[in-house]
C-alpha cells in the first residue's frame, strides 16, 4: 500500500474518482494536486459550485431552525420555499442537517457528509440537494457512488447503532432538484442492495490499496473520461468540457 494512503479516509468522491480514472486519483489524493484552470469556462463552473454551497448553507439553517430572512438571490428563495413545502418541519421528527458519519471498515475509514438526515417514527430518510439543471433519473441515482456510500454507512452507523428497532427497508436515499419541476428521486434500501454496496466499497478500496501509484506505467488511465476531467489540461494539454464536468463536491 502507498504510504500516503495508510491513514487515508475514503469518501464517495475519492472512491468515485478512482472508479472514473485511477490516474486522476493519483493526482488528487497521492500527489495532492489541486488543479484549477483559470479560463472563462472554469470560472463559470466554480462560480456555479460556490452558488450550490451557498444554497446548501441556507437549507442547513432552515432545518437547524435558524432564522434565514429573505435572500438577495430570488432563485434561492424560490428553491427554499419548494423544500419547505416538500419537507415542513414537524416536532415529531429529528432533523440532522450536514450530518457526518464515519465507519471503520476493517481498518479502513470511510466518511460521508449527508445534506440532511430525517429520523421519523418509522423511517430514516437521507436527503441530498442537487442544484444543477441536468435531471437525475432513478437509474442514475441508484448507481451513484454517493448512493452506495451514503446508504451503506447509514445502515452500518445510523440504523444498526442508534435505531436497531428499525428495519433496513426503513432507510431511503432521496435526491431533490429544486431548480426543476419534478419530484424527489427515491431509492429504498434492502438487504440485497446492502450486500452489493458493501462488496463494491470493499473491492474498490482493495483495488486502490493494490495500485502502485509510484509507477505511472502501471496505472490505468481512462481516456474516455479525460474531456470531463479537471486534469485534462495537465494530462493532455486539451480543453475541458465544463458543461458536463464531473461534480466533485456534491458527488456523482
Indicate the mean pLDDT: 86
Q: Structural class per helix/strand content? A: alpha/beta
Can you count the beta strands? 6
In CATH, the topology is named Lambda Exonuclease, Chain A
CATH first level: Alpha Beta
Which segments are poorly predicted (pLDDT under 50) over 5 or more consecutive residues?
39-47, 245-252
Per DSSP, what share of the residues sits in E-state strands of 2 or more residues?
15-25%
* Overall form: globular
**CATH architecture designation:** Alpha-Beta Complex
Main β-sheet: number of strands, strand sense, barrel status?
Answer: 6 strands, mixed
Q: Over the alpha carbons, how many angstroms does the gyration radius reach?
A: 19 Å
Number of helices: 8
Count of domains: 1
How much helix is in the residues?
40-55%
Q: What string, H for helix and E for strand, traces the elements in order?
A: EHHHHEEEHHEEHH
Distance between the termini: 26 Å
Amino acid at each position: 500500500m502507498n504510504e500516503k494512503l495508510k491513514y487515508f479516509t475514503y469518501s464517495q468522491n475519492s472512491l468515485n474518482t478512482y472508479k472514473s480514472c485511477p490516474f486522476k486519483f493519483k493526482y488528487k489524493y497521492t500527489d495532492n494536486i489541486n488543479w484549477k484552470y483559470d479560463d472563462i469556462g472554469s470560472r463559470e463552473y466554480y462560480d456555479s459550485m460556490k452558488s450550490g454551497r451557498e444554497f446548501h448553507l441556507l437549507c442547513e439553517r432552515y432545518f437547524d431552525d435558524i432564522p434565514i430572512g429573505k435572500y438577495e438571490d430570488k432563485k434561492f428563495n424560490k428553491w427554499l420555499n419548494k423544500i419547505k413545502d416538500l419537507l415542513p418541519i414537524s416536532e415529531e421528527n429529528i432533523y440532522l442537517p450536514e450530518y457526518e458519519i464515519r465507519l471503520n471498515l476493517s481498518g479502513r475509514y470511510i466518511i460521508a457528509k449527508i445534506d440532511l438526515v430525517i429520523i421519523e417514527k418509522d423511517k430514516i430518510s437521507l436527503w441530498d440537494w442537487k442544484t444543477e439543471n441536468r435531471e437525475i433519473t432513478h437509474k442514475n441515482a441508484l448507481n451513484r457512488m454517493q448512493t452506495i456510500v451514503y446508504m451503506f454507512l447509514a445502515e452500518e452507523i445510523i440504523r444498526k447503532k442508534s435505531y436497531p428497532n428499525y428495519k433496513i427497508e426503513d432507510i431511503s436515499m432521496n435526491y431533490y432538484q429544486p431548480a426543476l419541476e419534478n419530484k424527489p428521486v427515491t431509492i429504498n434500501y434492502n438487504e440485497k442492495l446492502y450486500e452489493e454496496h458493501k462488496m463494491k466499497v470493499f473491492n474498490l478500496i482493495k483495488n486502490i490499496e493494490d495500485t502502485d501509484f509510484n509507477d505511472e506505467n502501471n496505472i490505468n488511465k481512462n481516456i474516455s473520461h479525460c474531456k470531463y476531467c479537471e486534469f485534462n489540461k495537465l494530462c493532455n494539454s486539451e480543453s475541458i468540457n465544463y458543461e458536463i464536468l464531473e461534480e466533485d463536491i456534491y458527488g456523482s
